[in-house]
Design brief:
The complex is a heterodimer of chains A (359) and B (286).
Chain A lengths: L1 H25 L3 E6 L6 H11 L2 E6 L2 H10 L7 E2 L7 H7 L2 E2 L13 H10 L9 E13 L21 E2 L4 H10 L4 H4 L3 H17 L11 H9 L5 E5 H10 L3 E4 L6 E7 L1 E2 L5 H11 L2 H11 L2 E2 L10 H10 L2 H5 L2 E2 L7 H14 L2
Parallel strand pairs in A: 1-2, 1-3, 6-7, 9-12
Antiparallel strand pairs in A: 4-10, 5-7, 5-8, 5-9, 5-11
Helix pairs in contact in A: 8-15
Chain B lengths: L1 H37 L11 H8 L1 H35 L3 H11 L6 H12 L4 H8 L13 H12 L1 H11 L4 H9 L4 H29 L3 H7 L6 H11 L3 H25 L4 H6 L1
Helix pairs in contact in B: 1-13, 2-3, 2-13, 3-7, 3-8, 3-10, 5-11, 7-11, 8-10, 9-10, 12-13
Classes of the chains: A alpha/beta (359), B mainly alpha (286).
């Protein structure tokens, strides 16, 4: 008797698993998106579900974690990802975690043509492109002008007179921004690892010497906002929308483009190679880039969007941010991130570790 | 008889198999893969010892480890020093209801996650935080000082987050200590220090070592507390592993660091056990 019960129990458990598997294969109503915080506002997700019937599961992440997670599953686990455009082609070559985009399935006429072309070109691997532009922005300085009026460029963050009042990320943009500010052209050195290592050694010295100025190295947006808002930190390297958000609360704080040029990035849509819901992924990309949806996002988060006609739906104060912070002369001076060659990140990593460990 | 044995085997298998599968598929297998990764070169897959040698060649890596291990030992020691009187009070000085209430007071903070507890400390200690606000209003300081982002705060945070794991085993062994022995010592005129040194601490040794191992391992492997409370100067060894794997995509190096952490921390515990003349088997049994 006992034996029969046990056998039945096993059958029920195993059978249940198989049944669940079969049920999942017939219909796939779920789109699993891995993206940045703020890129998928709940209102838009609800609207998308109402329109298409797909339910969206959002995982929040950043560039490095996106790559690491997808690498661990060899491109599975998510149906849509949103990495920055400079972190795509080398990852495709090394790990093959994304699949090429079928641009015929997109409403390309709602996308800004110059951004689309630039992203296509930068993510070209073996004649195929892997990304669609979604959001763009710049990394510059957020400064409390009442407290630190003299900060105009990345290198001013090293100024000893602001000891303990400065914050930046201990990540690659800091190395590169500081490099431009001190007269290097780091992007031109990408092709020559030896020269780039020399540049990194210089940056290591500079940033270790500048350590007394730093309050802490920030590593998430909320931490940064909190320390600027409380005026514990007077100047930080940050994205423009952090500055604009704080500008609305305290007019002394604002985003300024560094004199050596802001660093510009484009975040994209990419499809992981083992995406299980291509239909939903393309539907989501088209939905998010539709002018009124993209404008809703920009009004909320103040990031620039790649949607061409979104500007018609923007709030006045949001438009004012762009004319104040990113006027044409600033845009002309911008340093766009080129694709990161393999191996560079490891070199940068060691430099960053050394800076963090130094006393 | 024969039939009976068959039954036992079926039942045994049914309950044993999930455990084995769990251990093998989710713990042993990934570790074997990591072990393989740690001995191969990134991208090419050739066998190499470079990942391990890098640890000894680059001063930054082994210095970080030495620092991490040193602070972990310090934290473990501090936790022991603080836990002994706390445990003594809970187990010997108060009775009945009060014991339970105090135990709950120690346990309650652990009902929320480590992240929340660390953020709690950050709200208290930051420059615009609660403690500074009070000290300035009461006139102790002229202007707020930054209490976060230094080693002392970090150690305090680590002591706080690992206290429980020392207090519980020490109370466990202290409950067994016969009060009459302490009373007898008092009657015979022993000083308080002598009582602690010759009666209480030796009796609690197994609990202390037990808790010590747990606390040491927890602290050595913690990531959040050093990172958030230590700030700009606190490179913890776990952070190196995270950086290698997540930020620099160098899984091979990260895997090697992981195994080095395992080996070196086991070595440290073994040495400490030898030095204090404790036997691991005895400790675990108790």
């Amino acid at each position: 008797m006992k034996k029969v019960v046990l056998v039945l129990m096993v059958l029920v458990v195993v059978g249940g698993m198989l049944f669940a598997q079969a049920a999942a294969e017939t219909k796939n109503p779920v789109l699993r998106v891995i993206t940045w915080s703020g890129y998928a506002p709940q209102e838009l997700l609800d609207k998308f579900t109402a329109e298409t019937g797909y339910k969206v599961e959002v995982t929040l992440s950043n560039n490095e974690e996106m790559i690491s997670k997808l690498r661990a599953t060899r491109g599975g686990g998510f149906d849509l990802a949103q990495p920055s455009q400079d972190r795509i082609s080398s990852v495709v070559e090394q790990y093959g975690i994304y699949q090429p985009i079928d641009y015929t399935r997109l409403n390309t006429d709602q996308i800004d043509p110059s951004l689309l072309e630039a992203v296509k070109k930068n993510t070209l691997v073996n004649g195929k492109s892997y990304a669609v532009p979604h959001v763009y922005g710049t990394e510059g300085l957020v400064v409390n002008k009442a407290k630190a009026p003299d900060i105009k460029d990345f290198k001013d963050l090293l100024d000893p007179k602001y000891a303990g009042r400065v914050s930046y990320r201990l990540k690659r943009p800091t190395l590169i921004g500081m490099g431009f500010s001190l007269g290097y052209d780091p992007f031109a050195l990408y092709a020559d690892p030896a020269a780039y290592q020399k540049f990194l050694n210089e940056m290591e010295k500079v940033l270790i010497a500048g350590k007394p100025s730093v309050k802490t190295y920030w590593d998430n947006g909320d931490q940064l906002l909190q320390s600027l808002r409380s005026e514990e930190v007077w100047a930080a390297s940050a994205w423009e929308q952090a500055g604009w958000k704080l500008h609305a609360e305290n007019p002394n704080i604002d985003y300024i483009a560094p004199t050596s040029g802001a660093l510009a990035w484009v975040d994209t849509f990419t499809i992981p190679s083992k995406s299980e819901n291509l239909d939903a992924a393309y539907a989501y990309i088209n939905f998010m880039l539709r002018a009124e949806n993209a404008a809703f996002f920009t009004n909320r988060e103040t990031y620039g969007t790649a949607s061409k006609d979104a500007v018609n739906y923007l709030d006045e104060e949001i438009k004012a941010n762009f004319t104040r912070g990113l006027p044409p002369e600033v845009l002309a001076n911008i340093n766009w991130y080129p694709t990161v060659p393999a191996g560079i990140e490891e070199m940068e990593g060691k430099t960053l570790d050394k800076i963090k460990a130094a006393r | 008889m024969m039939k009976n044995r068959q039954h036992i085997k079926w039942g045994f298998l049914f309950f044993f198999l999930p455990v084995v599968l769990w251990l093998f598929l989710l713990i042993v297998l990934p570790h074997l893969e990591l072990l393989r990764l740690s001995f191969t070169k990134a991208n090419t897959g050739k066998l190499t010892l470079d990942n391990y040698l890098a640890f000894f060649r680059e001063p930054i890596y082994w210095l970080t480890f030495v620092r991490t291990a040193g602070y972990s030992i310090l934290v473990t020691f501090l936790v022991m020093v603080i836990s002994l009187p706390v445990s003594f009070y809970i187990s010997k000085m108060v009775r009945g209801r009060m014991t339970g209430a105090l135990m709950i007071l120690i346990l309650v903070p652990f009902w929320v996650s480590e992240l929340i507890r660390v953020y709690g400390w950050m709200i208290l200690l930051r420059e615009s935080g609660i403690l500074n606000h009070f000290l300035v209003t009461l006139g102790f300081f002229k202007e707020p000082v930054e209490m976060l982002y230094n080693d002392i705060t970090m150690i305090m945070g680590l002591v706080y987050t690992s206290m429980l794991f020392m207090v519980v085993p020490v109370i466990g062994v202290m409950d067994d200590l016969d009060n009459s022995i302490i009373e007898a010592a008092y009657d015979l005129g022993a000083s308080k220090i002598a009582i602690w040194r010759t009666i209480i601490i030796p009796h609690c040794a197994s609990g202390l070592v037990n808790g010590g191992i747990i606390v040491f391992m927890l602290v050595l492997g913690s990531y959040l507390t050093p990172n958030l409370m230590g700030g700009k100067n606190s490179l913890w060894f776990t952070e190196q592993i995270y950086n290698q794997i997540i930020l620099y995509f160098n899984w091979n190096q990260g895997a090697a660091f992981g195994f080095l952490l395992l080996a070196l921390s086991s070595l440290i515990i073994w040495v400490l056990l030898k030095l204090t003349k404790q036997n691991l088997k005895e400790v675990v049994k108790k």
